[in-house]
User: Fold these one by one.
Assistant:
Number 1:
Amino acid sequence: MILNDDDTIAAISTAIGEGGIGIVRVSGKEAVTAVEKVFKNRKGLPISKRRSHSIVMGTIVDPNDGSEVDEVLVSVMRAPNTYTREDVVEVNCHGGSMALRRTLGLVIAAGARAAEPGEFTKRAFLNGRINLAQAEAVIDIIRSKTDVALKTAMGQLGGGLSNKISAVAETVTEALVQIEAAVDFSDEDIDVLPVEGLVSMLKDSLGELERLLTTSIKGRILKEGIRTAIVGRPNVGKSSLLNALLRADRAIVTPVPGTTRDIIEEIVNVNGVPLCLMDTAGIREADGEVERIGVELSRRALKISELVLCLIDGSKDVGEEDLALIGEIDTGAAILVINKSDLPQAPSVREIRLPESFKGQVEISALTGAGIGALEKAIEEIFFGGELDASDTAVITSVRHEQLVSNAAMRTREALSLLCTGQPEETISIVLRDVIRDLGEVTGESVGEDVLGRIFSQFCIGK
């Protein structure tokens, strides 16, 4: 997708369906003209004569037959103080798919074209209002699953990560300038290469890049959530635990073993950490084909999970199936959850020896809710050391960013090694240019059209 400055684009920017309001957004040089062709205001000046950032009430009218489509409010915002830095008009319709689609169709017929996914935000980037890392934060805001994830994404939109990246790039650029100056004066008998100062600059840059890389796990978890499997023998309370964590009756709970036959997936906010919960069928020797398939799905969920909540019934003696399942858990992190703490506990529960994959055990009652808070705290402790802080706005939440920063750190180490061993300045210069290019791809200063296409294709139409 290549930006054409002469294009005026339009799209529905709110979710399709019934609601209080729906918005058709139009951006480009002819935005005001296109809307004015299909808008009849009640009184006063036409929208082309209205001041920027004003709202006028009127009606969308089909110019072909004069029929009225919807009563609307039209917002007029003139460049450059808009989201795209172009003229933007937003038609605020009544929420409903037919009114929105008719309005959009009329605006397109009046001279606009249908916007592509993410094209409004892409124009904001290409017109210099935001950098690429900030543009990517927009989709993180839309997809945020918890308040902490939203705060992190807002920090990114405010420039938290890109400011750090730009600062490192500036330091590396300064080092490159000094090294290239040494190349320029290489024919003269003058020592112009301050090695100690350059080493200090590059070490500081490397330290900052490495610190950013340590945030990538936290960032990915906040963005995508932790894949969490609830496993155990039949009728130990897995579905009850799911319901307790959700604070809602999502899964069917009965005293009949084998009630859950398929994977039930839900996302729950645990102290700011999104858990992608998978309630699985009880793992045991299957009785019949349907249960066999359910058990197989449970074992697959076990293998792909980053966190396993392994339930046992604390009111009953630990059986061979319990021990076999505990021994089978060897990926990710695991917590032994001893359920039914509201009942007398079997002595054998205290004698279980846990593999290294287990990070602790918690006693709960999924029926009464006792211990659920302690379980949530234990999960937070495993992944964030008990401290989940959204005040740090410089967090890597993108695999693309992580790879680029990792590459930049690797090349910075290489440049340091070359510098400390007295290698030619030309060689060091090449490596530092690669560092600057990697960092520029994060903020969008050096990025190809193919990368932009992949990034903005993830956006919804209208954003």
Number 2:
Amino acid sequence: MPKIYAFYLPQFYRTLENDEWWGEGFTDWVTVKNAKPLFEGHVQPREPMEYYDLLEKETMQRQADLMDKYSIDGFCFYHYYFENGKKILEKPAENLLKWKDIRMPFCFYWANQTWIKSWSNIEGGNVWTYGLGGTENKTSDDNGILLKQSYGGEKDWLEHIEYLMPFFEDKRYIKIDGRPIFIIYMPEDIKCFSDMKKCWDKFMDENGKPHVYFIGRNSYGSCMDGYMDHEPKFAIQEMVGRKYNNDYGIMAVLDYDEVWRKIIANAEVGDNYFYGGFVGFDTTPRQGKNRGIVIAGQTPQKFKKYLVWLLIKAINCKNDIVFLNAWNEWGESMYLEPDILNGEAYLKAVKEAKFLVESNKEIFQGMTLTNMNNMMSERIDSLLRQNERYRNYWEILRDWLNIKVDGKKILKYLTDSNVETVAIYGMGMLGAILYKELCDEGICVKYGIDKDVSKNDKFDIPIVALDDEFTDVDLIIISVVYDREKIKDLLKEKINVEVMFLYEILSYAKQ
């Protein structure tokens, strides 16, 4: 089963440079909080469950716990290292090196760009955000450079790898065949890379260590040991070139499904080739309306489906790693971390996608996925629905058992709401257990509703079909774990009565 590594942005703590360039107290949280919706349905600002500080050990411990809970195999920390050994945003990784008790597998992703002010015309530069500090006081001798990226000579290369060695030697550092992974964002920008690699190889040989395993972003360079798709940017480069028209005045508004399908189609077969996926994408918090790109239409369900597709393709191509963008890139709406809108849904999607692929790998092995046809799509969708049903079923049984262990009663909502008569939709196993428990507690269950009316023989109440006439009750409880919202709408059309799901009754009982 491929490992899933998520890109990790260490921008969420205060630095002297951020204070100077963008304003006192700036972190990427400022960008996130200041975002605004620019069209109907545009989800901004994004609100995390917590606005954390990455210098706090408790924050990184919680992240490690979430990583472990939801089967994320490791983080790729962005590594910012400039000329003369200048570093920035390095503290979270350095702290992790000290905090050996935090189980957080990690590697480095060298973001080897020059940092520039928003008005600078330097190509390939990285601008954190537009419209903040660092743009107003332009002078004739100001070239717009904040931190210059250059690569120097052998002395500089040795200083760099000497800094990296304690991380490479850490037991948690991610390796391939014993070699520490080191990803490079723009390998083509390092004209001296071949010499630098020889220097690093010699250093590792002299210290009796395995050579570094270099991975280039979207790079096919012969000097790289491997290469990966950094998505969705690779797909976006092609799609924005079509000059998408939209009515929002934004540079581009792309479709989530279309971008993901392009990623799946573009993922090639090759030795040491690693696929990339993404959670969401919206650069308007950083880039503003005129420069921003939005990928619209994302949902946890869609993300799970496409991640399943990518994992299947990885299995068939014997690809051991899938990179996800990202764990916490909040300023571009690429994050797995919990937020107010979806809670932990995207993290759950990762775990469920991995479980689905692993438990059905015999079905998927040998499939040709270069051009996924409708049959393939329908097969995966069917398995996803089945997996969702089993998960919902298990969660209801778990909660029900916990309620009993805690000595609480399922009828708490009914008694608090003066419910005296009930009907149950779905007279399968869950409905049957619910029926018995309510009867034991003195609640009058007047009838059941089920597709199979022959179940009349199994109960002391009438079983009616959805098309039959209903008699009045105080409440209808839906016990099934599939198509619940659809069933609720159909019931509300039939009878003017309160309708609740079984899991809602259980949630109330747990309080």
Number 3:
Amino acid sequence: MRSTILKRTSRWLGASALALLVGIGGVSTAFVMTGQAATAQVQNAAQITVPQAAQPQAGFADLVEAVKPAVVSILVEAEESPRNVQRRGGDFDFNFPDLPEGHPFHDFFDQFGGQGPRGGQESAPRHYMAAGSGFIISADGYIVTNNHVVEDATKVTVVFDDGTEKVAEIVGTDERTDLAVVKIDGADLPFVNFESDASRVGDWVVAVGNPFGLGGTVTVGVISGSGRNIGGSNYGDFLQIDAAVNTGNSGGPAFNTKGEVVGVNTAIYSPNGGNVGIAFAIPAATVKGIVAQLIDSGTVTRGYLGVGIQDVTRDIADGVGLADAKGAIVSNVAEDGPAGPAGVKSGDIITAVDGDKIDDALDLSRTIAGKAPDSTVELTVWRDGAETKVSVKLGKLNEEALAQAGQGQNPVPPAPLPSETSVGLSLVPNADGSGGLLIQDVKPDSAAAEKGLAVGDAILEVNNTPVNTLEEFEAALDAVKAEGRGTALVKASRDGNDRFIGLPLAAE
């Protein structure tokens, strides 16, 4: 057989080309030889045997054969103004290189839900089609996909791996996690399950989906990272995978080697519109909870604490005497939210909820959102250098309540005759009498400038003490130094948004 193959190859490539190929393999006694001579050389070479232990593991064909019938393509008909399909902001997009106006590839790119090469130009509403992916999770036809795949749909068609098509209805969507559930009529349909044990970084993943309309496409990789927070997303606990994911894979599953769904492919990092080995999937643990609520009621309800929060930096931790830079600091408390009446105050650092440690502001947001409205949670709070407990009965999250929680004090235009402080800031009292000091100047080489304080910001508190005059500001700084700390916790406001800053103090 080998002789036959080489003879055919010699007739196709020519003797010289064949000699070069054989020479690369380690037989190079003649630069030009006939197909027959080359065959003799190969036959005389020692055969390499790979030890059993070193042989590669079996492929993923059996796994794919088992799960593929439950993975579907989602075809969407919609009417909307053309838009630049940037699903997650920044570099998380599906853009394509520029093409001449009128090029036929414009229609090719448009069918996948984006205007691609045309840039950000708006035009009159139009009817278009888009393609995504999904997977069946029950024998009676519930299907999981992304919200951004079906959010503008007037008609949703599900296409099976064998080409069968069925029209689906949208059961419910959740914009915050970018998940959706659609339903087709059926019985005894093939379906897949979510993972039973949490996946780990380094585990194999197999992505199956409909990239660029090429349904039933399989790519393989590993989980590259977890807990990823990507720009422009309201949800920040993505799995990062390196299996190739492209436009049209959205809503499709990523499987483990047991054939269980570990995540829903949602976004890619791409500076050029194509796959560069960084994709993001919503983990199964989140998907299960959201999908259950969508199937049950068509909507998702979340707990609401009623506070504005930010991460605890090392400087902030030093400013309040906290050993670890973990938790979420409360920048403001909504007037009608549940946290205020329960005793939560601005400047509190929430380090745990119901005994579970909180790493940062996003972790607290996810934890509270995962609690049921009207349930009571116990917050562990760091306040005035000591730990305390606060019980709060949660409300129900809605966008109006969320906006209220983020409201702060609005600074007014600076007043004249500022007074210079010991930390490189020039301050004036707030002219409208609402309290605080307005920044009129920041020394470029000061710690205040390094921490991002700028002209027009309002200083509201130092060390959780309100400051309305220069004397109060300096006295609060002196109190921090007297306590033996080199960093002051400063509460500032910009454009109505309050935040805390750990401001280093010069050693005396």
Number 4:
Amino acid sequence: MNRTLLILGLVLVLGTAVHAQPTSPAKLDGIYKRELLGTREIIPYDDIREADIYWEKRIWRNIDFREKINLPFTWPVDPFVQVVYDAVMSGELTAYSPLYDDFREGTAIPTDELKARFNKVDTTWILDETTYEEVPVIVVNEFDYKTVQKIQIKEDWVFDEETSTMVVRIIGLSMIRDRIDPTTGEVITTETMFWLYYPDLRNVLIRHEVFNDKNSARYLTYEDIFEMRLFNSVVVKEDNVYDRNIESYATGIDQVLESERIKQQIFEFEHTLWEF
């Protein structure tokens, strides 16, 4: 009896093995496997001594995603704003108050407060067609990365006497969100969401690929865009005794000219340091 059961078991196993469908290998979307992105690491900045600083200028710039050169920021496969937002909400990055860009102690915003601020739950009332009574409906307004069309960076330009080079370092980054009227769908105003300390942000940006329209085999990361200066921007402020933005003392074409003047001033300073 036991022998008969054993033979029947072997027949069933062999029959299952014969009729089993072979497992197909995972399909590769391309002719090679892209693995280098996960191996990238940020390159640490060189130390700069205060005694070697000959000249310094701090400026603030706005990067508008709607400009053609800045379109990689909005790549729908991995949009920049969503990458940063997810890192903040997961606690990987610390967000600081939009009122201060010096990352002082006590200005960090708790993650729970950020979630409540940018993922609001509202209650609306609709008419029930059966009872003809108004009933409450919970509406969850989740954060939409498309409402962020600009970011602002704060950076320092210094001339290092030790290496005789002009060095630019981004210190902080903030996201500027459009506030939209729910009834008309039009933009009412803009608001700064929060500030981020850029040296901490580099570890996140190095892990996310950006579309490269020049060469699909040469992948770029968001960290490359900032460090290689592959973006266009408008200067909105330089350090000054009144601590005011350009828009507070210039309008229209004068505002544009003032922005270009600051850019040209930095270029001419470095240029005139050398004799040809």
